[in-house]
Specification:
six-stranded parallel beta sheet, binds 5'-deoxyadenosine, binds iron/sulfur cluster, globular, Rossmann fold, 23 strands, tRNA-2-methylthio-N(6)-dimethylallyladenosine(37) synthase activity, rSAM_horseshoe, alpha/beta, Transcription Regulator spoIIAA, EC 2.8.4.3
């Protein structure tokens, strides 16, 4: 590992010496114990907020949905692009001016949690004197102690140590939306891929997987609570390897563990329990619970995983396959570990084994040295693959990354903007083709919630993850039934897709259904 890629790691060796691991209860916060969370960035952050909330709830805190009522305001932050950070700086400037509504109470305590905390600890504390608590992604257990420390006006309590083994395996996250029928479950943390543009390995630390049994237990509990969809989360969710208890001897498959043509710059781990094993276990917990996963890396899609997705009706037929670029030259500069051809071969393989799969991607435009030919390659990749959805970004150079140290951010903002508009256009043109092919098909929609703006409409998602709207009105209770019922969040509804907008469908609901009955012959 080169000096610039060295991570700040502090392994926890002796729990006895760390007071916050002994579950203390802090009753005497002079500033009150009502906390408000605001979450930015990816789904990992949504789940991180749930861990932070679990820790604080255990320490006697109450949650509020209004920052005006809060004694403590915690922002769970994202550093992935400059724009994401700017948003949080602006929010902080506003929150600093806030006085609490209750008479006699002054300013609320402000805390920065997550990726920005790790990256900008110095600026946040010394330059900006902006906040009272700074807690990195591996320091949420420490929140009660940090809050207690931050009692005086001039003290900022900080813990941004990255751990090599923290997975919060023993903490049951507390969901922010208690009524939701979907949940996130973190299965691994950190990333070692060191893609040259990416800050994540520096803000979230080394890759580590949570033990299988703790994941299975959490999902069993969620199933008992009536949760109908679990999304397994991780920065490289399919690189999962539980090395904790069972030390399997490396199999021949472990020795060549990656998709054909793919490589890493770090030495791949061998042995342990892998993603296919985990997916097999969690999909057997509750056959009426949908399993999704986010975000995978293209390098770890062995046929074993693809077969499982194809065979198990409750593992959703959606694969997020972040390409990042369509040019082999740029992919090399990005250190992605695959060429355009390897990526396209993988897409073919996936479509061969899972014919009705829905595919999505992340794409960065304007990376260092990207020229017009590279840009055309990206346009042609979008043309060829025809994604069901895509997240398209302008490159934003981040300090600490390999690109920051070794490359030039040499594509102007103007050109980045033009290229983004062009890739957006091609993506949307193709989307029209992809969406039109779905019209008239029957899909199994898991209802999530009524629309806030229009409660007469229910929002749900198809197996492929496509957002779908149906009227909030009674439907037959089963395929041949005369009885009707109002569908509610957590219900499966068989529905025919009738029209679309770029990123959503409208559907005519047919009848209430289940995974079992929908996918058994004749019941669609
Ligand atoms: N600039 C722009 N986009 C980025 N991403 C990661 N780092 C950067 C960056 N420096 C994008 C990648 C990744 C997604 C989560 O964010 O596409 O997959
Ligand atoms: Fe960043 Fe690459 Fe790791 Fe994804 S795989 S988090 S893009 S370094």
């Amino acid at each position: 590992m080169s000096p610039e890629t060295k991570l700040e790691q502090v392994p926890i060796e002796n729990d006895e010496e760390i007071p916050y691991l002994q579950n203390p209860v802090y009753d005497e916060y002079p500033f009150g114990k009502t906390v408000y969370f605001e979450t930015y960035g990816c789904q990992m952050n949504v789940n991180d907020a749930e861990y932070a909330w679990a820790v604080l709830q255990n320490a006697g805190f109450k949650k509020t949905d209004s920052y005006l009522m809060a004694d403590v305001i915690l922002l769970v932050t994202c550093s992935i692009r400059e724009k994401a950070e700017d948003k949080i700086w602006n929010r902080l400037a506003f929150l600093k001016t806030l006085k609490r509504k209750q008479p006699g109470k002054g300013f609320p305590k402000l805390g920065i949690l997550g990726c920005m905390a790790e990256r900008l600890k110095k600026k946040i504390v010394e330059q900006e004197k902006a906040v009272d608590i700074v807690a990195g992604p591996d320091a949420y257990r420490d929140l009660p102690r940090l809050l207690e420390q931050a009692t005086s006006e001039s003290t900022t309590a900080i813990n941004v140590m990255l751990s090599v083994d923290e997975t919060y395996a023993d903490i049951m996250p507390v969901r922010m939306d208690e009524l939701s029928k979907t949940a996130f479950v973190s299965i691994m943390r950190g990333c070692e891929n060191m893609c040259s543009y990416c800050i994540v390995p520096f803000t979230r630390g080394l890759e580590r997987s949570r033990p299988v049994e703790s994941i299975v237990n959490e999902i069993k509990q969620l199933s008992d609570q009536g949760i109908k969809q679990v999304t397994l989360l991780g920065q490289n969710v399919n690189s999962y390897r539980d090395l904790s208890e069972v030390q399997h001897k490396p199999t021949p498959e472990d020795v060549a563990p990656m998709s054909k043509g793919f490589k890493t710059i770090y030495k791949p781990r061998l042995g342990g329990l892998r993603f296919a094993y985990l997916l097999d276990r969690v999909s057997q917990i509750d056959s009426e619970m949908r399993i999704r996963f986010m975000s995978p890396h293209p390098k770890d899609f062995p046929d074993e995983v693809l077969h499982l997705i194809s065979e198990r009706p409750n593992i959703c037929n959606h694969i997020h396959l972040p390409a990042q670029s369509g040019s082999t030259k740029v992919l090399e500069a990005m250190r992605r570990g695959y060429s355009r051809e390897d990526y396209l071969n993988l897409v073919d393989r996936i479509r061969h084994l899972i014919p009705d799969v829905s595919l999505s991607t992340d794409m960065i435009t304007g990376f260092c040295s990207e020229d017009e030919i590279d840009h055309q390659d990206t346009l042609s990749l979008l043309n060829l693959v025809k994604y069901n959805f895509a997240f398209l970004f302008k490159y934003s150079m981040r300090k600490k990354t390999h690109a920051y140290h070794k490359m030039k951010d040499d594509v102007s903002q103007e050109v980045k903007g033009q290229r983004l508009a062009e890739i957006m256009e091609i993506y949307q043109q193709k989307l029209v083709e992809v969406n039109s092919q779905c019209l008239g098909t029957n899909q199994l929609v898991l209802i999530e919630k009524p629309l806030q703006k229009n409660p007469d409409v229910l929002m749900g998602r198809t197996d492929g993850g496509l957002k779908t709207f149906i009227p909030n009105s009674p439907i037959p209770t089963s395929v041949n039934s005369q009885d009707t019922i109002l569908p509610k969040p957590g219900d499966y509804v068989a529905a025919k897709l009738t029209s679309y907008k770029p990123n959503s469908f409208r559907a005519q609901p047919l009848h209430l259904s289940s995974i079992k009955s929908f996918y058994s012959t004749g019941s669609r």
